[in-house]
Specification:
The protein has about 300 residues and is α/β, with parallel strands linked by helices. Helix content is about 40%, strand content about 20%. α4 packs parallel to α5. The protein binds iron/sulfur cluster.
Amino acid sequence: MVYSAHSGFTVPLDTAKVTSAQGKGLVATLMIDSSQQAPQIEVAAKAGACYGVQRALDLTDQALAEADGSKVYSLGPLIHNPQVIAELETRGVKVIDRLDAAGPGRLIVRTHGVPPDLALPPHTIDATCPYVKIAQRKTAELAASCDQVVIVGDDGHPEVEGLKGYAGDKGVVAADTKAARQIKQTGSVGIVVQTTQSQAALNEVAACFEAPRIANTICRATAERQQAAVELAQRADSMLVVGGRNSGNTKRLADLCAAVCPNTHLIEGASEIDPSWLVGSQLVGISAGASTPLAQIEEVRHALTD
Ligand code: SF4
């Protein structure tokens, strides 16, 4: 057993290599069908729920405990993980898309944060990840000192929408070099980056501007998960990346893995695994986005091996 620690939050994460010669899981089925050797199953050294996600879930638990039967409202999904959101809904967390849709009860702000001009009701619980808060603060600082603020990120993503609010009318979004080249530099440029983007995306966009002032706000959890996933994918014959299809950081993780291991599959749960993906694999790697609880990673691992 090894431990993945991130800013005080500790996740017990079993990354030991496992074979399933005696198991009844998908891998054992595969061996019977194809008489192939049992592959090793390995979970990336850093994978799954990050500090910010766990903090948001803890704050929600606390809000539910204090709600005394009334609902807790989340402005947009608390995190990008459909199973977790469905489970929270059964416990009384209602997702709303507009502030005026909230009824009596506490409101909770999602991990991705909100623009600064949103008039939140009193007693709102702020589950904005502290790393997103840093990105918001840096965006406001760049807006105060530069003529333009380029936000490296996915336009429409809730975190980016929040950052746009902090950049004001100086803000412009670029996800890649193609978008960056469309931006005409009119003076000093500050660059800030969505916390879950890749370093490569930041470097590529930054290279499109003259003497930009860069605030690298990619969070440590993202960088660590990307490095660990790629390291494993380089050795693996097949990779399973577990997480919500609506999760930008999970999709990016899957893209990075696919670049070095073409047999990479993004799945939301064990039921989506197609055993044919594993045929001929000697090493099956598992990684997971920052919004994927440990239990969902374990469910996939167990489906393969138990
Ligand atoms: S991925 Fe990073 S920024 Fe996003 S919630 Fe987790 S710790 Fe916070």
